[in-house]
Amino acid sequence: LDPQLWHACAGGMAQIPPINSKVYYFPQGHSEHANKAVDFHEFPRISPLIPCRVSSISYLADSETDEVYAKMRLVPLGRNECDVDDEGGLMGFSKNEEKEKPNSFAKTLTQSDANNGGGFSVPRYCAETIFPRHIYRGTPRRHLLTTGWSNFVNQKKLVAGDSIVFLRTENGDLCVGIQRAKTGISGGPEVVSGWSTGAAN
Amino acid sequence: LDPQLWHACAGGMAQIPPINSKVYYFPQGHSEHANKAVDFHEFPRISPLIPCRVSSISYLADSETDEVYAKMRLVPLGRNECDVDDEGGLMGFSKNEEKEKPNSFAKTLTQSDANNGGGFSVPRYCAETIFPRHIYRGTPRRHLLTTGWSNFVNQKKLVAGDSIVFLRTENGDLCVGIQRAKTGISGGPEVVSGWSTGAAN
DNA sequence: TTGTCGGCCGATCGCCGACAA
DNA sequence: TTGTCGGCGATCGGCCGACAA
């Protein structure tokens, strides 16, 4: 997924550490978000927090619900790599994503937007900056998406309260993302981490 | 699932051994029907056929596709229980299901039946013996299901060539089953057998 | 500027008898 | 007896401007 679109859908609350940054991994916190929490009293030798390096990040979206989630690979650090003062230190998130103001716009769908018998009322700013073509009608005039919008709403099963994100990328492509009001809780489809294989490395 | 309805949907080709009967279990054949075939050359000590007793049978249908499948629990027999002549012997299927002629009827859907703009033409025998109420019209007169039929076709995603089964149980209930033309191959949704846990018992 | 409403027109759904196999 | 067809009326989807917040 395009990282810009991903961040636009995830919202500002979702901060992702840059690649190669150092972070703490909390096994118990991870386990509590997984399907089955692990009782760590059985594993007293596992440290509650493990310094790691972020070796890779995948920006993904659920193929069914289109909800965005991220997959990060963490490599535990050796004892001599754990220097906190090292290049910004642990836990430091770079905020360079916010510097570049992307050409994106989000709107929460109104009742009229989500009605199956209507179009999508496009806010003026979005219409002027993001949209290539749309209907401009009514008295007073307003910007509207009509043909095709209903199909999109039905296919994605959108309801009033859900949000839609429009993003114009640097090379001119128009991307669309959605953000549902009823979040499915838990981060992603299933939390499929490698408890059984690589976690002990 | 009602065993009668299950058998009506599965068809005469699907024969299920009665509970407590003795059967041979073929690990390799089972494995070949599973998602991943197991290379049994790695396990030379596993017998190619294992005498078992059928300890339980569940008649089930896939919650999504409504395709019927059965789940059987097999208990391996001890050496002294393996007498072939014992109560009918191994591999003997009781055919008592066919004795009782159930009040059921199956029909393969025609193009007209599956069209979204129409009803279901009910064969005369089915109309007279199974159905409680239906439309009787046209010149010449014929038996038809109209209102509600389209919804059923759409919900179950039925197409021409699929079959529908009507069954009147002994206590008067009317059951409906379907049988798709495009079989999803493999028996059931996913072959979830206990390769990892109980297979060695 | 934009959310909601009622009107209206066309497309589709779904019930019908006619006909023929 | 029953599969297919064309027709038709009712319903629904979807685009419209009016109006008000």
Describe this entry's structure for a reader.
The structure is a homodimer of 201-residue chains. Chain A has 201 residues and is α+β, with helices and mostly antiparallel strands. In chain A, 18% of the residues lie in helices and 26% in strands. In chain A, the strands form 3 sheets. In chain A, strands 1-2-3 form a 3-stranded antiparallel sheet. The first copy, chain A, has a 3-stranded antiparallel sheet with strand order 4-8-9. In chain A, a hairpin with a 4-residue loop joins β6 and β7. The longest helix of chain A is centred in the first third of the chain and has 8 residues, at 3-10. The two termini of chain A are 29 Å apart. The chains hardly touch. Chain A binds a DNA duplex (21 and 21 nucleotides) through residues 110-113, 115-119, 121-124, 135, 137-144, 146-147, 149-150.
